[in-house]
Amino acid sequence: MIKKLPLIFSVSAVLFVGTAIAQTPSLKDVFKKEFLIGTAMNAQQIEGKDTAADRLIKQQFNAVTPENCMKAEIIQPRWDTYNFDLADKLVAFAKKNNIKINAHNLIWHSQLPAFMHHMQSADSVRQYFVNHITKVASRYDGKVYSWDVVNEALNEDGTLRKDIFLDKLGDDYIVEAFRLAQKAAPHTKLYYNDYNIEQPKKRAGAIALIKKIQAAGVRIDGVGIQGHWKAGNVPMADIEESIKEYSALGIEVMFTELDLSVLPNPWDKVTADVSATTEGSAKMNPYTKSLPDSMQQVLAKSYADLFTLFVKYKKDISRVTFWGVDDGQSWLNGFPIRGRTNYPLLFDRNLKPKPAFFRVIATVKK
Ligand code: 9MR
């Protein structure tokens, strides 16, 4: 009898754990009638090397965005030499699991192939621009759901960023990028994606850009507001105004790279270089062991406020994508200071749902 006890205990423990997992709600199911729920996928996850995360992705998300593998420096590492390996694996994973891919991205000033860095001739830039969009977008037409055709082309004041494309191709390059994408990928939705475009000046720039594309008779299906914000300081009024103004243009509104940092940002400080001192480093990385409950609640409240707003505007919002599956994956552990411990997502480093997860789930009244 006594000998049997541990067995009985372990059976019930297994049953308990099993039930607990089965009872974790699924974001994609809970928000089925509202909008798609996405996550960024990194190389490990796409390669199938992170099976626990993959299981969670299948359970929780119906949309994915490749965090890096479809960016130009990876997909066209050398002039006219393409590497589609990871992107093709992602397509296969998504197809098998009935997940929509938002491909990211075709034209961006950052993460460009090395051969672009010193390119002087406008003709070469134009050739790259046409070939890259045409080749990559046509390969995945009908296989990916959507493309971020142009990423982060605006300055904070709403003017066009002075990057290699503006410099060599002129003001109309964004319209041209959409025109080329439309031709190469007629069965794929086409989006403009940027950060801070909920802010009034940058938003005005984005609206002008979208109107210009529309006026040229070129297709643009939606706009992605990235959503890299700070827990406890989310610009709710600007976000609401943005949803109204962008949807008034007749396009989908999406939140495409959502994460809420809980760490101090050195750029908010008057002294720029606090991070360089030992004292500064400790101050800048206060939660190395765990997130205190008070901050956990701040994070949860910000997420609850955001999703309450998203649900209110569900007819205008087509997708909400988190920039990563769990806190361990987040780029915010390495930016703007390397080696910190941040907690910006809904799942912790052990892939367990955090209080914020349950507050998000509770914003849907069924
Ligand atoms: O999360 C991405 C990170 O792994 C890369 O190192 C980084 C390089 O620029 O890009 C990150 O993703 C960015 C996205 O592609 C565009 N918007 C900002 C994202 C965070 O930097």
Describe the fold and architecture:
It is globular, with a radius of gyration of 22 Å. α13 (about 295-310) runs parallel beside α14 (about 355-360). The protein is an alpha/beta fold and about 375 residues long. About 40% of the residues lie in helices and about 15% in strands. The chain has a single domain (about 10-265, about 280-360), classed as Alpha-Beta Barrel (TIM Barrel). Bound molecules: ligand 9MR.
Keywords:
disordered N terminus; 15% strand; alpha/beta; binds ligand 9MR; eight-stranded parallel β-barrel; 366 residues; globular; 41% helix; TIM Barrel
Which second-level CATH architecture applies? Alpha-Beta Barrel
Instruction: Kindly report the CATH topology.
Output: TIM Barrel
> Any idea what the CATH superfamily is called?
Glycosidases
DSSP E strands, number: 9
Global mean pLDDT? 92
When the domains are counted, the total is 1
Shape from CA axes?
globular
Rounded to an integer in angstroms, the radius of gyration calculated over CA atoms is 22 Å
CATH secondary-structure class? Alpha Beta
Strand order of the largest sheet: 1-2-3-4-5-6-8-9
Class of secondary structure makeup: alpha/beta
Tell me what portion of residues adopts beta-strand conformation. Answer: 5-15%
What assembly state would you assign to the polypeptide chains in this entry? Answer: single chain
Main sheet summary: 8 strands, parallel, barrel
Give helix and strand order, one letter per element, not per position: HHEHHEHHEHEHHEHEEHEHHEH
| Bound ligand species | ligand 9MR
Low-confidence stretches: 1-20, 270-275
Residue share in helix: 40-55%
